[in-house]
Amino acid sequence: MSGKEVARCNILVVDDDELVSEYLGALLEAESYDVVVKNEPFAALEYFHNHADDFDLIITDQVMPGLTGIEITQEILKVRPSLPVLLITGYSKKITAENAESFGLSGFFSKPINESLLLDKISNLIGCPA
To answer: How many structural domains is the chain composed of?
Structure first.
């Protein structure tokens, strides 16, 4: 090592399905991202509000009890308007890859997730780790 510390990017993953959130967390950690996983949308939003400046990217599921991914996105963007948010969903008639941007989203992915497309999108959005 050259003595330089490589800055790691921090990603918040919000998905009420623990298997999906653990899978995403492991996938992202394997790519050298620091990941915080939350399975309850209200707890995730509270955590975000307490650590808003810590995150480089948010990944959220759409269909969850209490709050949808779009509702979480809207709340997050009130605090950090330029923070990239990716939405992942198994089914959505309302949100598509074509109209995702109109909801403030930086990207939209259907389940099952294409890992390479997801990782490419994250890399393009936040440009780290180096």
So the answer is: 1
Q: Is residue 92 part of a domain?
A: yes
Q: For 44-55, what is the mean pLDDT?
A: 97
CA–CA separation, 24 vs 22, rounded Å? Answer: 5
* Model pLDDT, residue 6: 53
Question: Helix 115-126 to helix 18-30 angle, to the nearest 10 degrees?
Answer: 60
pLDDT tier, 130 (very low <50, low <70, confident <90, very high otherwise): very low
pTM given for the model: 0.91
32: left (phi over 0), alpha (psi -120 to 50) or beta: left
Is 1 inside any structural domain? no
**If you write DSSP's letter for every residue of 85-125 in order, what string do you get?**
EEEEES--SS--TTTGGGGT-SEEEESSP-HHHHHHHHHHH
Q: Is the pLDDT of residue 3 over 70?
A: no
Look at residue 4 and tell me if it is in a domain. Answer: no
Q: Is residue 129 part of a domain?
A: no
Range of the domain at 107: 10-124
